[in-house]
Design goal:
single chain; mainly alpha; Tetracycline Repressor, domain 2
Length: 169
């Protein structure tokens, strides 16, 4: 799906590329929607967001925010194929991914809000902070897509600089 997009990927093509019969695929997944939801569910994003990252709570607010964003950034880059699929299909309004993407966004926002409450209690509105962080994450990811030669560490640092300026200075 990440290669062809969900609209162009038929269950028959997917089964062939996986070395399965299409009936076997339909035995486990009733539709592409169910398959995509299972792929995202298998990644266990909710569980991964359940506990804040290991951040030195004695550090400054800036250091804690940078460490928290670095954790999110690395996780997003590790999951690049999933994010590319969801973002690309979401931009095209593909109905198959919209509910999956919405649920994932809610999971990430909820998790980040809890992280901010635990790690950055000086931030007045953890929900707003989470939305700002998600915006920087997506903005950085878009930069990565359109400027693939730019080092990921530079993108991360620029996004973290903006977060610090907006949230803790």
């Amino acid at each position: 799906m990440s290669t062809h997009g969900s609209a162009a990927m038929s269950m028959r093509l997917l089964a062939r590329e996986c070395g399965l019969g299409v009936a076997a695929l339909y035995h486990y997944f009733e539709s592409k929607d169910a398959l995509l939801a299972a792929v995202v569910d298998e990644r266990r994003y909710g569980d991964r967001m359940a506990e804040p990252p290991d951040v030195d709570l004695a550090g400054s607010a800036e250091q804690r925010l940078r460490a928290m964003f670095a954790e999110m950034w690395r996780g997003a880059i590790e999951e690049e194929a999933i994010w590319r699929l969801l973002l690309g299909e979401g931009v095209r309004g593909e109905p198959t991914v919209l509910p999956v993407g919405q649920a994932l966004l809610e999971t990430v926002e909820r998790g980040l809000s809890a992280w901010i409450e635990a790690v950055l209690p000086e931030v007045d509105d953890a929900g707003a902070g989470a939305r700002i962080m998600i915006g920087q994450l997506f903005g950085g990811f878009v930069r990565h897509i359109f400027d693939p030669g730019l080092p990921l560490s530079d993108i991360e640092a620029q996004a973290a600089d903006a977060l610090v300026a907006a949230m803790v200075r």
